[in-house]
Amino acid sequence: MPQTSTDLTHIPALVARQKQWIAQGHSRDVDVRRQQIRRLLSAVEAAEGDLLEAMQQDLAKPATEAWLTDIGTVLEEGEHVLKNLRQWMRPRKAATPWMHSPSSAYQLPEPYGVVAVIGPWNYPVSMLLVPTIGALAAGNAVIIKPSEFVPYTNAVLGRLITDTFPVEEVAWLPGAIPETTALLSEPLDYIFFTGSPAVGRIVMQAAARHLTPVTLELGGKSPVILDEHVDLEVATRRIVWGKCLNAGQTCVAPDYLLVHRKVKAEALAWMQRHLRDFFGPDPQQSPDFGRIIHDRHVARLAGLIEGQIVTGGQVDVADRYVAPTLIEVDNPETHPAMQEEIFGPILPIIPYDRLEEAIRFINARPKPLALYVFTTRSRVRQAVIERTSSGSVCVNDLVVQVGLSDLPFGGVGESGMGSYHGQRSFDTFSHLKSVMRRNFLADAPGRFAPYRVPLALLKPLIRWLG
Ligand code: NAD
After folding, report:
1. Distance from the CA of 334 to the CA of which of 124, 164, 397, 437 falls in 20 to 30 A?
2. 199 CA distance to ligand 1 centroid (A)?
């Protein structure tokens, strides 16, 4: 029987053991870090079949989706790190003024120490392993705390981690709120949290006690603007795909659609057609459509289905099924689906007449994790990019911006703080220590007491030398 909880009394000793390992300095060596990442990638490749099967059991994730979003992203991130790590670890030179010469200065990336990676259930492999790769690349020890709602995936991933790493390097800490609370009470050196804004606040409060730095990867309502000048067939196909990926349980899923009134009817027709093409007449029978994580979320989603339902609306609690659902929303201020992050396959559709209205609508709400605009007009594209604020923007597609190793991913405001992926992960998990070096040769005139050089002379001299 796989372990699903942790003896809370073991947590302080685990943190102490990892701190000791870091203090011994092994992870300062680039080869140690590269070898850890290689070991992790090989283990993931070897367990690929078991992981896909487990995600099928937890979330009915189609294998293609699960591989692309949970396994492929981990392998790609790891390869990218292996290729670039030596260069990222190099000291970063800083200029020194003539006044201090001879001298040199640089920033040296050093590990924080013990990093806690606390994850959600929706992408139960990549949301844990992508940050773990970044933390290892930067020379840290890692404690991984998975979500308690994906027992099958946790059984495979927990075994993979414990078989691949000694606990002082990477530890698996299964459990729910008590385990997370106990972990957060420890003097951790960095906390990387992915989850809801509500729990993000709890994490940040706990971090304040030890002044532990945090990255918060949170969620929220990511809008889509669908302009009238657009390839409607392509745009709507991508939107429906993004909404139904993992049954809508994606942090950067399109949450709601703002559609230009002129193309609303045609867009709705296209979306219904794409849904039929993707999942047939009854999506519940399709092997390519996932399930909701647990009954509580099915009940919550059922409560959001209200008003003018264009298609879908069916809910089967026993099967944890919520149909892909399109709803026309007349009054977004009161419609239940517009009051919280949906995190399910329900798409509220709100018409607008002028771009200005759509921008105002978005800006009146918390800053989203992602924002999408579909248009062929550069004026519209630029207005949306420049006059809104969000973690990321993707033009004429959605979700795929998250997959770029070279493009940092993160939120802003209510959708989070900090970012990661590729070099940004390395920087996130490194303390960039400033170092300045001098020798014993010269000192600037007037530096030491008694201060006899008149200020009127010193100021222009410093400016000139600086
Ligand atoms: P959650 O916040 O409920 O749980 C996340 C983690 O926190 C889990 O490991 C859980 O055990 C722990 N936790 C829950 N309650 C806690 C508490 N009171 N005290 C301490 N720890 C607690 O989130 P979830 O339901 O697992 O995931 C869904 C949310 O995550 C959505 O809001 C989604 O948008 C967001 N998300 C964000 C990203 C991103 O990259 N920005 C990615 C995936 C999911």
Report:
1. 397
2. 6
> CATH homologous superfamily for 223-408?
Aldehyde Dehydrogenase; Chain A, domain 2 (3.40.309.10)
Tell me what the mean pLDDT of segment 351-365 comes to: 98
The domain ranges of the chain are 10-218+416-432, 223-408
| Whole-number average pLDDT of the chain | 96
The pTM of this model reads 0.96
CATH homologous superfamily, domain 10-218+416-432? Aldehyde Dehydrogenase; Chain A, domain 1 (3.40.605.10)
User: What is the C-alpha radius of gyration for the chain, rounded to an integer number of angstroms?
Assistant: 25
- Which one from 217, 228, 341, 394 is the annotated catalytic residue? 217
pLDDT for the residue 2: 64
- Give the per-residue SS3 of 232-265: HHHHHHHHHHHHHHHHHCCCCCEEEEEEEHHHHH
Quote the distance between the C-alpha of residue 71 and its chain's center.
15
Q: How far is the CA of 195 from the centre of ligand 1 (A)?
A: 3
Q: Is 251 a catalytic residue?
A: yes
Q: Is a pLDDT exceeding 90 seen at residue 174? A: yes
CA gap 242, 375 in Å, rounded: 17
Q: Is the CB of 414 under 6 A from ligand 1?
A: no
Site to substitute for ligand 1 among 73, 123, 180, 294, most atoms within 8 A of C-beta: 180
